[in-house]
């Protein structure tokens, strides 16, 4: 922690020195520093939300319903495949199909996270939409010479879909955060309602669609059921594809992107490593719990009801579970704007401890009362949405400067998906070797670990201006001798009214040599 504190203090010091009449600024005229103007922030907020920013936030987040749909569609289809193809769709095949999407999501998050910082947010979002549409269509059309061959085709198709899901996370969330920063005073709630709410709503939406399609197809046409469910996944990204083509580039990205040279990742890591470690670990713990509980929720519920093969009954209880988890999104959005991100995430992880231990310790008694079991299970998932579900995307989009925001967000989310893969892979062995109750006890243990990680490593943020973080990071790079260009080609930093050239008599953006400030 000492390294980053020193670096942050150095960055803050450089701003204060730049604003004052520094003796050393006269001695070295070749150094360019930037200062943060609070008055311009007030002016932007005073004008109120602009139509452009609202449009960007909406279009960036709306199609995340599709991501939530794709993440949760396998919950019921796992049960459908087991009934339709019992000889082939065993535990290993179920895990392979589920993990194909998760592993591809990891690649999508890392690759598109990097490219979002280089080619821009807009084209990264469009790339994600294309992969989602193509992947969903491939899933619906999966065929093979044998049933096993069909499932391997489905695994590949789920991989394509997963890459699209992964692409959506950094590109859409970062774009929404930067747009919200322009004119929305309480950015946290707006960001959550446009990102995590669609993601969380995707689960109940998938179950509602399943109940409708299941009623139409009936138990004798299960193949038509699962193909239709996959095909419907194309709808949401297609519905906003045209509008995403019209997205505007945020002012933050125009002013602060590093496009002409390679971003100084080593310096960025030295500066941000505690925050990056915190977002990665917290997201890992959250996804380790929430993803297997989402994917295998049908199996969990079937263990506590009488007819384990009644698809409609399982889907109805699953829908109730998903609906119970939604209020956490709204409460979390409200809390993030009042008490900040850090404490809200800690409250959410604490919910895992409380409800995980209640269900885990009293499992054999609670499972006999299906309604009570679903309510407690739903409250545990709701606390996950309230805390890390709402907070991790928000914190990851606010903790890092614009030039590396997509990369750090993508890496944090990717480590989270590693947790999802590990959790999915270990879920069935835990149930078989330790008992069903241990899935909840381990969730409580992860909740405790999440509280500690958040307390130590996650910064206390509460709608701070992202522009100010950019100033600190850019001055840190300058003080460490980095020579490069900030801003896109169409943006002239010299005309930037938010960043003032204080220490330099030159108009170039290239830093000639670093300046050492003595405070």
From TrEMBL:
Pfam families: Sugar_tr (PF00083)
Transmembrane segments annotated in the record for this chain: 97-116, 123-143, 190-213, 225-245, 317-336, 343-363, 369-387, 438-458
InterPro entries (alphabetical): MFS_dom, MFS_sugar_transport-like, MFS_trans_sf, Sugar_transporter_CS
Ranges where the record places region Disordered: 497-519
SUPFAM superfamilies in alphabetical order: MFS general substrate transporter
Keyword Cell wall biogenesis/degradation applies: no
Major facilitator superfamily (MFS) profile domain ranges (all copies): 56-462
Compositional bias ranges of the Basic and acidic residues kind: 503-519
Signal peptide from the UniProt entry: none
Subcellular location: Cell membrane
MF annotations from Gene Ontology: carboxylic acid transmembrane transporter activity; glycerol-3-phosphate transmembrane transporter activity; glycerophosphodiester transmembrane transporter activity
UniProtKB keywords: Cell membrane, Membrane, Transmembrane, Transmembrane helix, Transport, Virulence
Similarity comment text for this entry: Belongs to the major facilitator superfamily. Sugar transporter (TC 2.A.1.1) family.
Protein name stated in the entry: Putative plasma membrane permease, glycerophosphoinositol and glycerophosphocholine uptake
Annotated source species: Suhomyces tanzawaensis NRRL Y-17324
